[in-house]
Every structure is written in C-alpha cells, then in structure tokens.
Design a protein that fits this description.
Elements lengths: L16 E3 L5 H4 L4 H9 L2 H14 L3 E3 L12
Parallel strand pairs: 1-2
C-alpha cells in the first residue's frame, strides 16, 4: 500500500485519473445469486458510483481497462 507521506500533496484532477478495473457486466451483474449477494452486502455498486461521481465532479478522467486474455489461459 502507498504511504501517504509519499503521495504528491499537489495532486490535481488534471494530472490524476480513476481506474475502474474489472468493471465489467459479467462481474457487476452476475447470474450467480451468491455473487449478487456479495456485491449487495459490500455496497460495491453504490461505492463505485460514488467514486465515479466524485471523479466527474472534479473533472477527473475515468479509465475502464478491459482484459484481453490468451485463448489458452496462459496469462
């Protein structure tokens, strides 16, 4: 985990981005009831929405990377 003392105190929305990794429908809208319960119990979607809303409010760019895995599963 990053130490707060090493973070640049002058971070700005123009030089900072929010990365929403694995924010895919398969993860966030699962068919498996146990996964649905897990997301609900931990407020995953509302927390993600709050983060994205805060980033938009200050003009921060949000990135949504998607994985491109090898067909043989080697990665």
């Amino acid at each position: 985990m990053a130490k707060i003392s090493r973070l640049d105190p002058a971070l700005s929305a123009a030089r900072t981005g929010l990365i929403m990794f694995d924010a895919l429908n398969g993860y966030l809208h699962p068919a498996n009831p146990a996964k649905v319960a897990f997301l609900a119990e931990r407020n995953i979607l509302p927390n993600m929405q709050r983060l994205i809303g805060g980033a938009r409010k200050v003009g921060m760019t949000t990135f949504y990377p998607s994985g491109a895995h090898a067909a043989d599963g080697s990665d």
